[in-house]
Structure formats: structure tokens, C-alpha cells
Amino acid sequence: MLGKLTWEAVPWNQPIPLIAAALVLAATLGALAFVTATGRWTYLWREWITSVDHKRIGVMYVLLGLAMLLRGFIDAVMMRSQQALAVGHSAGYLPPEHYDQIFSAHGTIMILFGAMPLVVGLMNFVVPLQLGVRDVAFPTFNSTGFWLTAAGALLVNVSLVVGEFARTGWLPYPPLSETAYSPGVGVDYYLWAVQIAGLGSLINGINLTTTILKVRAPGMGYLRMPMFCWTALASSLLIIAAFPVLTATLAMLGLDRYAGFHFFTNEAGGNQMMFVNLVWAWGHPEVYILVLPAFGIFSEIFSTFSGKPLFGYRSMVAATLFICVVSFMVWLHHFFTMGGGGDVNAAFGIATSIIAVGTGVKVYNWIFTMYGGEVRFETPMLWALGFVFTFVIGGMTGVLLAVPPADFLLHNSLFLVAHFHNVIVGGVVFGVFAGIEYWFPKAFGFRLHERLGKAAFWLAFTGFWVTFTPLYALGLMGMTRRLQHVDVPEWRPWLYVSAAGVVILAAGALVQAVQLVVSIRRREALRDVTGDPWNGRSLEWSTPSPPPAFNFAVLPQVQGLDAHWRAKQAHLAQPADKPRYEPIATPRNTATGVVVGVFATLMGFAVIWHIWWLLAAGFVGAYATFVVFAWRDRDEDEIPAREVARIDRARLAGLRARETRA
Amino acid sequence: MTARDSLEATPRDRGDRAPGDAIEERGLVQGLAGYGLGLALAAGLTAAAFFVAAGHLVWGPAIPMALVTLAVAQMGVHLVFFLHLTSGPDNTNNALALAFGVLIVALVLGGSVWIMAHLNHLHPAMAQMMSMRR
Amino acid sequence: MSAAAHVRATGHGQGGPASKRIVVGYGFWLFLLSDIVMFSAFFAAWAVLARSTAGGPSGRDLFEPSRVAAETALLLASSFTCGLSALATRARSLVWTELALLATGLLGAAFLVLEAQEFAGLVARGAGPQRSAFLSAFFALVGCHGLHVAAGLLWLGTMMAQIPVKGFRATLERRMLCFNLFWHTLDIIWVGLFTVVYLLGAGA
């Protein structure tokens, strides 16, 4: 009836996961109780859960990403502390089979359930506003993509309570990940959580690409789009190109595990290297999917906080597209040491070095943007400056690793671990926090507390360097990654310093949370009245904070780059003649997304535990949901012209008040 | 475009065509002729491929190249006659998207085959090594 | 809304948002391209594992050219009838649309029956996917295409039920466009499949 599922699946005899599970359950139940007590279920259902508004979906993505970032960070705390403690005779506190699950969960969660939702959420929120349009191309699809990602995240977290997680690292190399060597449900949890979330990501890639190419305000030619939209386009194109490869590869591993196929097994002709090859053909573009939007965020921030247009816009566009294409030509550098030979290693090593040129162009353009401008060192700009310093160094260690002979010594050492954290934290995480600080007022109508924001940045920046510099040294000294126990006493001081760095990072995370709480409590004092708190340049700053559901009462007529800045210079914010207000058709909210997400979770759980009737029922339910959605008669609501006019007149009145005050 | 679309006074982009859409002005007879011609050409190319594979038409070592050429031609017939993909300016986005897809396919297929061939040469699979020992 | 805006509207998005039909068609086109990339990963696996027969049967021992020819003919014919259904939709003829869709579905179903027979026969001969890496790759690649055809038939059936009830409204016309794109693309993938896997594979 319940497949392989028994009571033993719950880790009754393992205190750490048991306590962690209990805490998570308590927090979840507490949140549900709070919502019930304050009578907010109707509001939540109508305004958020069934919403197809890109702004709401973007916020939910960011919230999901932040929650999973925290979970991944706790995994990191456990790993660093274990390594600091388990030197020489000491065994630490995490047994190997548990430690293996922790580092596997850490990587999987951080990349696929932390960074991806954060980046996608910001793109979702900002891109339609910057393009001067009302929503993305496929709003209901957007909602479905979010709920599928949430379903995947839920499955990963369920593995903490029921069953186990994979012990194979964040990319489950066979033959270790085959049934013969991983007979439990861990790898299956990984497979299905990532497949479901991968589908959500693909949906996003298609949605954003179509939006950016086909749904823009009149007059916005390609070279008048904000830089963030260009990077969002490049990232979304990469999603469309790369995620199908991951889907196919994990499906092959799934077929090996479930149906006795021999793609990657030791016997009957399977080829383990084929997995490594295909999964990195996805894996490398994946990191560019993450970092390109971060580059875009920094482009926006550098120009806004220098009071100057972005330097070298066309070369930035060229560099972005260059990085987009070349990122698909370097993937072998993740397995230089696995026997490809000189020809192959040299070709991919050269390509890897060349791709750095694109980023170099961007860095120079950012610096030249600041030169001659009136630079304001507010929190988003601090993140941007911290990023340039951190990411450039991380990139340089990457170019060092791109040289195959060097990589033969450093592959899978802590040097590698330090490198990729250097670029992902310095690039993606800093970028996401910069973006959150920057666009928070637009999303919620009040700013975040500035002093606490600066403190959080400095703690994160310092904490990062204190944590990871020792890892570079340890890697050069020969320490491999993923060690549950350390045999070399000379390494101990470095591990202590690194653990201390984690404490600083934890303090930074705490201050970040405090900033949010304090800002909410003081929101009236921090209110963003004008909609343009940073004196921005692109169209999102021409809307009120938060924008109305339809974003723009009348789509702006775009005359050039930095459309909002131009309008401000020409005082076009208050047009001389009254705009003609028309009724606006908005897509209807629907439960399709969340219901599909529920069925996806059930199907995932069913296939993991071999509960075949539940799998079939879930599939029927998902298809039925799709048919119900396809059968509906009305897919749009109409906001009458008089309502549009009322909302817009309030916006214009606010702007006029700002002009007279200024 | 439905009445509902025109509710928005937004100017709509012109000069663009959805992929798979034929030009609007074509009549029913022209449409039928297009699909019929596509069917005939594709059928002919398919038959040719089977004949070539059976070894009746082409010198042996050239068979793979001939088959690949016939396959590409068939895909072209499908794209032009069934999917109405042209090189006109109203189809630029659609053709560019296809070109991007083809590039990725070439990189994934070509790259994988190249890499795996090198790996295989340097580290042969167990079965190959056993047969080499004999 | 000035005349100048329309003059400059070059189909590259400068004239404002594109019409819903273009937006939906283009988005679906992108999805199909992602699907083609997924197939290429399965193709790559097949190309690498084509000679890993583990002492078992190879393509030459297993493939039946006449069956493949029949499957190809069926799928090509169904592509043609699918095109006819597009013409019928444009002409707003319910009867012809349903007939053409029915023909497409029947031809597609016949294709699946032949393929299922082939798979069953292979398994019965001990040449199932568990026999060797080559057979695993074969079953996965061809099976993936078959699954797509089956999903297409499910979609087709749903639309055939919906059109008489709802009529030729804009949403259904857009879905017909998407279905056409899907079905023709499946045939394009089959061209690659039968050429590389069956015709070239039999010679290996």
C-alpha cells in the first residue's frame, strides 16, 4: 500500500536530524497557526497563493530562496564546525553517513533552491516593470513554475524527516549513485526534487525570453532595454538551452535506478564518464544562469549610484551575449583530471580562459561608470563594490584552475571549493542582496533601514573572506574537499580561522534579519512616497511603490535608453494633456499553479517510495487540473477605465507633490 | 486578434509572424498544394533514404554521408512546407531561435562525442580491454 | 500613440507588445527547441553507447527495415493530416477539423502500436533495455519519442473534445497552432531518429 515506506524512515535514533526536523515542523506549524489566528487565510489565498501577478510571484520566489539559503547556511555551519573539531584523534560530532548527506544537501539546496529562486524571483519582479509592460508573457505559467520549484524544495526538506538525502555530493556521480551502491531513497529524493524544480526553471526561462523578445513597451528597441533585461535574456536563453540536458541526464540515472537500465552502471557496457560529461554540460551554463542576472543588477546599481549612464552599453550587451554563448563551450574544465587527454583539455582550457574576457569588459565598464560620477555609498553600492573586489579575485583563481596542469594538483581540493564560493558568494549572493536592498522599496513601499543594511554588508564581506581565505591555503597544502575527518594536525589553525569566519557570517545573517524586522516596524518613517527613492534611471522607478496590479495605466512611449531618467529631465512625469484611460484586461488569479504543485509533490513522494497507485493518482490529478484550466471560459478580468484613472491620478498627485517640494 | 485584445489601447507590434503560421493571404487551394507538395517531397526523400541504406544506390563508404544529407533535406522540407519557416524579415525571430537551438544541439552532440571518444581511447571500457588482451 | 510608432514597428518588438498569437506561438516554439536539446542529450548518449553491446545483440541483429518504413510512413502521413487540420481551422470548418484531427490521431496511434510491438518483441527475445548499455540507450531514445507521441495524442483527444463544445475561440486557435508545431517537430525528430538509429545503426 505504501511502497517502501515504513516507520523506520523517520530518523528516531539520530538526534541531530530528529531535532532539526522537530524545529522545522514547529516553525511551520507556528506559522500556520499565526496565519489562522490573525484570520489571514482568505487574504493569503486570494492575494498570494493563487496570484498570477509577476510582482507577487517574484516576492514569493525571493522568500523561498531566502528560507532555503538559511537552511543551506546551517548545513555549512555544521560542516565547518565538524572539520574544525574532527582533527587527529577527535571524531567530531557528525558520523560520516550523516556528514555526506549534509554536504550533498548544502550544495543542492544552495544552488538549486537558494540561488536559483532568488535570481529568478528578482528577474520576475523587475523585468516587466523595466520593459514598461503589465506582466510577463505567460502569467499562469509563471505561477505554475513557482509552485513546481516550491514542490522540489519541499521534497528536499521532507527528506530530513522521512528517509534520507543523497550522500553523493550535489551532482550524483555514478556508479556511487546507482542502486548497487546507494540502495536507499536518498538519491531518489535528489532526482525527483531536482527534476520537478528543473521543470519550474525551464518554464521560467521560456517565460522570460518570450517576454523580453516579444512584450515590450512601444519604442523600446533592443538597444534601449535596461542592462538588467539583457542579462535576464541571456540567462533565460541559457536556461532553455541547458536545463533539458539536466532533465535527460537525471532521467537516464533514474532509468538505471528504477528500471535496471545500463547507462552508467559498471556492468553491461555502461559508461560512468558519460554522466559526468552530460551533467557538466548543464552544470557550467547553470552557474552563468546564476551570475549573469547578478551582473545585470550591478550594472543598474553602478549607474544609478554614480548618477551617470552605464559606460559602454553596447560593449556590455556584446560581452553578455559573448558570455552566454561561450559558457556552452567550456564544460570539460570540471573534469580535466578524468582522462580526456591533451587535445581535449587544451581546447577547453583555452576556451575557459577566453570567457574571462567578457567579464573583464564588464568590470572595466563598471569602473568607468563610476569615474567622473557623483558616487553615493548607500547599501546597494557597498554590495556592488564588495562584489567587484571579491568576484575579480575569485575569477582570477578560476583562470588559474583553467590551466589543466594546475588543475591536476588543485582539482577537488579546498582551493576549488574556495574558488567557486568566491565567485558564487561574491557574485550571486552579493548580487541578490544588493538587488533586494535596491528593489525592496519598489516591492513594499518602504525602504530598508540603511545603517543595519551597511552593518550586514560589512559582516558578510568580512565573514566571507575570513571563512574562505584559509580554504585557499588548505587547498594548496593538499586538503581534499568533503572530508569528515582531518588527519593532518598542521591544518587545524586554518580550520579554526575558517570556523570563526562562519560565526561572522552568521552574525551578518542575523543583522540582515534584524534589518527586516526593524524596517517593517518603522515602515511609516521609511515610507517611499515618490516611487523613486534612489533617483533611478529605468522605468520601474516611474511607477508608485508598490506598483498597482497593472503596473502602468498607459504603457510608456520609450524614446531612448534610461527612459525614466529622460522623462525626469524633460519633466514629462506630468504630461500637459490628460492621458486617455482605457479599461485594462488583467489575467485572472487561479489555483492551477498551486494545485499542480501539490500533485507534483505527491507524485515525487510516490515515485521515491515506490507507491505506484499514488503516482498514477497524482498524474491523473495533474492532468485533470490542466484540463479544468484549459476549459475555463473567462481568462481575464477587466479593470474599468474609471478605476484605472483613479489609481493613476493618485500617482500623479504624489509626483506633483514631490516636484513642488523639490 | 479577439475583441478582448483590442480592449487595450496599446499599440501592437506589426511585421511579425508566429512560428508555424502561414502568410495570411494564402487561400485554401494554395494551402493544400503546399502541404501536398511537402508530403510528396518528404515521402520521396524517405524512400531514397531507405534505398540508400539498403546499399542499392550509393557506394558503400559514402552511405552515412548520403543518409545524413537526405535527413537534413527532409527536415528542411518539414520546416518550409509544414512549419512555414521562411527567411523573410517577419520570421527573423523564429529562424534565429531555431539557429540557437541548432547551435546548442551541435555543441552537446558534437562536444559529447568528441570528449567521449578521447576518453574511450585513453581509458577503454572493461569489455574492450578484455578483448584486447586476447 | 503616434503614427511614427507604427512606422517603426519592425516586428522586433519596437512597436509595442506583440499579439497574443505571436507571443503564445513563440513561447511554444522555445519550448520545442528545449525539447530538441533534451532529445540531443539522449542522442549523445546513444552515440556514445552504440557499440556497447556487452556481448549481446546489436542493431543489425534486431532492426526490421520494413517496420521502420511503415512507422515513418504513418508519422509522415499524420503530419500531413495535421497540416490539413490547420487549414480546416482557418476555414472555420468544424467537421473537417475534427476529421483531420481524428486521422492524425489514428495514424499516430498506429505508429505507437507498431513501436510497442517492436519493443515487446525485443524484450521477449532477451534484448530488453536491461541487456546492455546500447539497448538501454536505444529504448530510452526511441521510447522518449514514443512518450511524446503518446502525450500528443492525449492533448489531441482533449482538443477534439473541446472544439465542438467551445467553438473556434481565440484560445483554441492558439492551442491548435501549438499542437501543429508540436506534431511537426515530432516528425522532424523522427527523421533524425530513423536515419541515425535505425538506418545507420543497422549498418554498424
Walk me through what this model shows:
Chain A is an all-alpha fold. Helix content of chain A is 68%, strand content 1%. In chain A, helix 4 packs across helix 13 and helix 14 packs antiparallel against helix 15 (492-521). The longest helix of chain A is centred in the N-terminal third of the chain and has 36 residues, at 96-131. The N and C termini of chain A lie far apart (71 Å). Chain B folds into two domains: 25-84; 88-134. The longest helix of chain B has 31 residues, at 92-122. Chain B starts with 27 loop residues before the first helix and ends with a helix. In chain B, 33% of the residues are buried. Chain C has helices at 3-7, 20-49, 59-62, 65-90, 94-124, 133-166, 170-203. In chain C, helix 5 (94-124) packs antiparallel against helix 6. Chain C is globular. Classes of the chains: A mainly alpha (662), B mainly alpha (134), C mainly alpha (204). Chains B and C meet through helix 1, helix 2 and helix 3 of B and helix 2, helix 4 and helix 7 of C.
Care to give the gist of this entry?
The complex is a heterotrimer of chains A (662), B (134) and C (204). With 662 residues, chain A is an all-alpha fold.
Radius of gyration of chain B: 23 Å
Low-pLDDT windows of residues of chain B: 1-9
Major sheet of chain B: size, sense and barrel closure? none
Order of helices and strands of chain B: HHHH
Shape of chain B: flat
Task: List how many beta strands of chain A DSSP finds.
Answer: 2
Net shape of chain A: globular
Biggest sheet: strand arrangement of chain A:
1-2
Number of domains of chain B: 2
Q: What structural category do the secondary elements of chain B indicate?
A: mainly alpha
Helix content of chain B: 55-70%
In total, the number of strands of chain B is 0
Report mean pLDDT of chain A, rounded to a whole number. 94
Q: Which sequence of SSEs, written as H and E, runs from N to C of chain A?
A: HHHHHHHHHHHHHHHHEHHEH
Please report the number of helical segments of chain A: 19
Ranges of chain A where pLDDT stays below 50 over 5 or more residues in a row are none
Report the oligomer.
Answer: heterotrimer
CATH superfamily assignment of the largest domain in chain A?
Answer: Cytochrome c oxidase-like, subunit I domain
In which range does the helix fraction of chain A lie?
Answer: 55-70%
